[in-house]
TrEMBL record, chain A:
Protein name stated in the entry: D-aspartate oxidase
Gene: Ddo
Predominant cellular place of this UniProt entry's protein: other
Reactions catalysed, as given in the entry: D-glutamate + O2 + H2O = 2-oxoglutarate + H2O2 + NH4(+); D-aspartate + O2 + H2O = oxaloacetate + H2O2 + NH4(+)
PROSITE patterns linked to this entry: DAO
Keywords assigned by UniProt, alphabetized: FAD, Flavoprotein, Oxidoreductase, Peroxisome, Signal
GO molecular function: D-aspartate oxidase activity; FAD binding
Enzyme nomenclature, EC number: 1.4.3.1
Positions bound to D-dopa: 223, 278
Family: Belongs to the DAMOX/DASOX family.
Pfam families in the cross-refs: DAO (PF01266)
Keyword Calcium in record: no
TrEMBL record, chain B:
EC code(s) of this entry: 1.4.3.3
Domain FAD dependent oxidoreductase: 2-329
This protein's record includes keyword Oxidoreductase: yes
PANTHER family cross-referenced by the UniProt entry: D-AMINO ACID OXIDASE (PTHR11530), D-AMINO-ACID OXIDASE (PTHR11530:SF15)
GO molecular function, one term: FAD binding
Keyword line: Cell projection, Cytoplasm, FAD, Flavoprotein, Oxidoreductase, Peroxisome, Phosphoprotein, S-nitrosylation, Secreted, Signal, Synapse
Originating species: Nothocercus julius
Name by which UniProt lists this protein: D-amino-acid oxidase
InterPro entries: D-amino_acid_oxidase_CS, DAO, FAD-dep_OxRdtase
Annotated family: Belongs to the DAMOX/DASOX family.
Length: 341, 347
């Protein structure tokens, strides 16, 4: 049978990494990435790209740990290579501080990040409103560089990229055999998933190159993440808010909260405000389906709903999605050979 | 009471400020002037990356260890202040790498979060089997020296761009006390066989993805004679060489190659980093810091010199402790000349 034609819908961190995994695992496929938005206009571009996982309620911890570990290991190798600066992947150390001691003292990812330990009294003195803290070293994927780097690698493998708004996955059935749905928050409309909801995040990107360490409040609302060309200050977690417009009073609030964690930020320049809608779900939808209508068929693999964990889990879920694509390819070959009998 | 400070690097300017702050309120007629042939951004202190870190071997004397600690604590108290950015002061974390286990340094409890490296972290640095991680401070000379200068000017300190050839020259102009912070060239004012240059060369690159300092230690090579990478607020500084007795301030192509190749081996992504500047400077190396009073002449014509030089590659690391020690020595001069009542305990 002819080489399977595979389309990945979505060009954020999940779409591009999934496309890369499919391209690497199945080089014989004719692969294309279709997206309404490419970097710098994706949700991933708003995120800081810090590898600090959230615990998703609907996925077993050991699975989340496996996805995080795969992602961390993959990025760790990039950060240690000559491509690190082009890929935008770098190590960063810092502190997660809590106003009251958290229930679980050791998060599931504590043995995957580097050097995880409780903060000393001397370190906590820098955070007078906080009583407990964790110090560790983790990775950060800066966007646009990371997305651009993935796009470059995809193009080198002959993967085509098209700016195209897909209204309905079925519209692709005549051009493609397999569609991988990495539409993120777009899946709400694209496949009508009512379990998917936005968690709105507003962030500031500021010029403060003397900030070399990250600081994150354990409540997840206030954070300072130093990147290559800017420091990301956050943030908000507004469930069910679909607004993509920056809110000026939220900007002031974020800035104030971050300055109380890191007073030197008062001197920060060139504040850019961005908004992203985290594609949230009780668990990531990673499954395959067969769509048929009349005599026509479309094999669909879903890989969306990563919420706050897009960067933390992307490589692990991309590999699993690629495995599902492999099952689709096998099914195609199966039905193709059966058709010949 | 007229005080002449010779030298406008971190030692001279901080000593001047400390003397003013500690003794100024007590001696209304205190006049300070700074004399130097080089000012920021052309001093040795400007070339240094500005990382607070004493030498790792237990070589320093007890008082030097204390001065380092005092400097760190002074700076740590200011890192959360609104002035920190103007001062060029910020926290930075990073790695010290060794080829075999070494004893912990004297300053392990001074820095924040000192710990040994885990095997996973050592994977980042092939060739090194042991190491430390800690959070320390950066104090960038090209911000800190102007900040000190501004503070001194606000208090009426005068600055003279002048090469001083002798202490006598300053006494003849009316100075009662000279504070000698002339660094590597102190021997020109008074021969000092213990003082010699420790030539360093650095390559400054644009590598804003580097967020940690990385300092290697090769036992045979000596301090600062093996690669180091230090991320500043604007550029990342690659070093290191430490050539004792070499007075050349010209950049050497051979040193450039050695630094570039060894740093790129440590962090392969540096190969893509654009080079912004190259600089050579002379560390004022001495077996110990010379910080002491010297009385020159006798009777009513006698003059005082307070020496404060020979800070090697740890000038920024030790500067404030030394500045306070200078102020204490100055206070005892004032007391002897009965310009002051009993020494206040805060000096």
């Amino acid at each position: 049978m002819a080489a399977p034609k595979v389309a990945v819908v979505g060009a954020g961190v999940v779409g591009l990494s999934t496309a890369l995994c499919v391209a690497d695992a199945f080089p014989a496929c004719a692969l294309a990435v279709l997206a309404e938005r490419f970097t710098p206009s994706t949700t991933s571009d708003v995120a800081a790209g810090m590898l600090i996982p959230h615990t998703a309620p609907g996925t077993p911890i050991h699975v989340q740990k496996q996805w995080f570990k795969e992602t961390f290991t993959y990025l760790f190798a990039i950060s240690n290579s000559a491509e690190a600066s082009e890929a935008g992947v770098h190590l960063v150390s810092g502190w997660q501080v809590f106003k009251s001691t958290p229930g679980e003292e050791l998060p599931f990812w504590s043995d995957i990040v580097l050097g995880f330990r409780t903060m000393s009294e001397a370190e906590l003195q820098k955070f007078p409103q906080h009583r407990y803290g964790q110090a560790f070293t983790t990775l950060k994927c800066d966007c646009p560089p990371y997305l651009l780097w993935m796009e470059k690698r995809l193009k080198a493998k002959g993967v085509q990229m098209y700016t195209r708004k897909v209204e309905n996955l079925w519209e692709l059935h005549s051009e493609y055999n397999i569609v991988v749905n990495c539409a993120g928050i777009g899946a709400h409309q694209l496949v009508g998933d009512q379990q998917l909801f936005p968690v709105r995040g507003q962030v500031l990107k500021v010029h403060a190159p003397w900030v070399k360490n990250f600081v994150r409040d354990g409540d997840g609302l206030t954070y300072i993440y130093p990147g290559i060309s800017s420091v990301t200050l956050g943030g908000t977690r507004e469930k069910e808010s679909w607004s993509l417009s920056p809110d000026p009073s939220t900007t002031k609030d974020i800035f104030g909260r971050c300055c109380s964690l890191e007073p030197s930020l008062q001197a920060a320049q060139e504040v850019k405000v961005q908004v992203g809608l985290r594609p949230s779900r009780a668990n990531v939808r990673l499954q395959r389906e067969v769509w048929s209508q009349g005599g026509a068929k479309l094999l669909v693999v879903h890989n969306y709903g990563h919420g706050s964990g897009g960067f933390s889990m992307h490589r692990g879920t991309a590999k699993e999605a690629a495995q599902l694509v492999g099952e689709c390819i096998a099914a195609l070959q199966d039905s193709s050979s059966r058709a010949k009998l | 009471m007229r005080v002449a400070v010779a030298g406008a690097g971190v030692a001279g300017l901080s000593a001047a400020l400390c003397v003013l702050e500690q003794c100024g309120p007590l001696v209304p007629a205190l006049e300070l002037a700074v004399y130097a042939d080089r000012f920021t951004p052309r001093t040795t202190s400007d070339g240094a990356a500005g990382l607070w870190q004493p030498y790792v071997q237990h070589g320093g004397s007890a008082r030097e260890t204390l001065w380092n600690k005092e400097t760190f604590e002074h700076l740590l108290g200011r890192v959360g202040s609104p002035e920190a950015e103007d001062m060029g002061l910020f926290l930075v974390s990073g790695y010290n790498l060794f080829k075999q286990p070494v004893p912990d340094p004297s300053w392990k409890d001074v820095v924040l979060g000192f710990r040994h490296l885990a095997p996973q972290e050592l994977e980042l640095f092939p060739g090194y089997s042991y190491g430390w991680f800690n959070t320390a401070l950066m104090l960038e000379g090209r911000s800190y020296l102007p900040w000190l200068t501004k503070r001194l000017m606000q208090r009426g300190v005068k600055f003279f761009h002048k090469k001083i050839d002798s202490f006598q020259e300053l006494f003849a102009q009316g100075a009662d006390v000279v504070i000698n912070c002339t660094g590597v060239r102190a021997g020109a004012l008074q021969p000092d066989a213990a003082l010699q240059p420790g030539r360093g060369q650095v390559i400054k690159v644009r590598a804003p993805w580097v967020k940690h300092f990385i300092i290697t230690h090769h036992p045979e090579a000596g301090i600062y004679n093996s690669p180091y990478i230090i991320p500043g607020s604007d550029v990342t500084v690659l070093g290191g060489v430490n050539q004792l007795g070499n007075w050349s301030e010209e950049n050497s192509a051979q040193d450039h190659r050695a630094i570039w190749e060894s740093c790129c081996r440590l962090l392969p992504a540096l190969q893509k980093a654009p080079i912004v500047q190259e600089w050579s400077g002379l560390r004022p190396v001495r077996p110990s810091v010379r910080l002491e009073r010297e009385t020159i002449g006798h009777g009513p014509a006698r003059s005082e010199v307070i020496h404060n030089y020979g800070h090697g590659g740890f000038g920024i690391t030790i500067h404030w402790g030394c500045a306070m020690a200078v102020a204490r020595l100055f206070g005892s001069i004032l007391q002897e000349r009965q310009l002051l009542g009993p020494l206040r305990s805060r000096i």
